[in-house]
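Saturday, quiet lab. Running sequence design on the structure tokens for the scaffold JK sent over.
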């Protein structure tokens, strides 16, 4: 099956537009960091947390789950009078530590949560295949628009060799 030059023209411009749209989408996918619904970067253990946990009550301001960003760093400040721990890290009163989970999802033991452990999840970058639909939505219209511009430009620039050229009157120079 042989395609006519006009059909080939439109297919090439549509494919070129989609390819450029995909490159733009991949660039933005690579450039932008994913954002979780409630990415937590700082956690403060309030004063009186150890006493509330000893009574079996939850501490205020301590979430049930930690949704961490892709880097997974969490800074914890202990404003309580007692020492606390998370995983194997000891947090003395008045100190601040930064931790990074070694797994993408899970649960870690801690002394400042009423359950004795706190669940965490890391926000991950979505698959590169999520760039295909935006590439089609962006690239196809632009490719066809540029193809139309080239098509019209070629038609305007064409002239028939059999037609006489109009020339102005000869100058008396």
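Result came back. Writing it out in full:
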């Amino acid at each position: 099956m042989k395609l006519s030059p006009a059909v080939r023209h439109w297919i090439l411009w549509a494919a070129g537009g989609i390819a450029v749209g995909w490159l733009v989408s991949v660039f933005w996918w690579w450039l932008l960091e994913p954002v979780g619904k409630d990415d937590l970067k700082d956690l403060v253990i309030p004063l009186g947390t150890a006493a509330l946990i000893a009574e079996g009550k939850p501490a205020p301001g301590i979430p049930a789950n930690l949704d961490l960003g892709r880097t997974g760093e969490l800074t914890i400040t202990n404003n309580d009078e007692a020492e606390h721990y998370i995983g194997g890290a000891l947090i003395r009163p008045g100190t601040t530590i930064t931790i990074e989970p070694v797994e993408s999802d899970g649960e870690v033991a801690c002394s400042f949560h009423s359950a004795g452990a706190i669940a965490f999840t890391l926000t991950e970058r979505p698959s590169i295949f999520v760039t295909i639909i935006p590439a089609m939505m962006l690239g196809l219209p632009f490719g066809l628009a540029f193809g139309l511009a080239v098509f019209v430009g070629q038609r305007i620039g064409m002239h028939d060799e059999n037609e006489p050229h109009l020339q102005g009157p000869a100058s008396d120079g």
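Notes for JK: Residues 5-31 form the longest helix (27 residues). The beta strands are 42-45, 65-68, 74-78, 84-86, 89-91, 96-99, 105-109, 117-122. Ask whether to fix the surface positions before the next round.
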